[in-house]
Here is the input.
Amino acid sequence: MIIDSRMKAAFEDPPPERCTKCTWVRYCTRECQAADWPEHKAVCRPPRKLDIGRWLDFNAWLFRWAARAALCTQGTNLTSTHALVVDLIRTDRLVPPSERPFLVDSVYLEAHARVAAQWHWQLGAPGYTAADRAHGAALQAQGALGLALVVFRVPGPNGTSLFFFQRLELGERACGAGGGLPCAEVFARVKGVVNGDFPQDAVLALLAADDHHGLTPDRPLQLSEVVRGPKKPRRKMKDRGQTVMH
Here is the structure.
């Protein structure tokens, strides 16, 4: 743009043209678009709506297992000091295309103090708040592990990052979850399951061996089951006509 402050005049360049198919890439001229097409056509496709909420619900069982295994490992309970952070990759611009809406780039633990120190993480729901800390302490007073914070980071528009927070009530009593796996192995298995490189059955086998409450993707663990014990089936005693627990 050329301006003349004395005359208060401005001479703008024409706005760049947008690719009509993907509406993502802009070009200065038609000639520029034609020159870039051999490379751009590999990623050019109509925009997709990536449902992060549905994706999080579908994988909730996996991240609950990962939070328990990573935040309470080798006898140390880290739920009140660290968060499980999951960096995601959007698949709408990957080559070749993927049917999965998101892939896991990395998984790691981050101290609550470091999470709170990053201003962009404080938009919307902050990190581990005073209310979260009190809630976690109340759960631990009942014999539970506490309240775990899981943070998902997704690339947003214009180079920004979007953050989604989950707070999980971990009702299990014993530390050392995940079959004694080190954190690096837990992170690798989460990445492998989401990205299709590690079978879900293998993680479910770990759950079955480590958890005595029947946790599966279709039946999430309830805090009441581990604090007060799982509900037991009822059967009627025909000879006495009463209902008993067994």
User: Anything to note?
Assistant: The two ends are 81 Å apart (CA to CA). The longest strand covers residues 102-111.
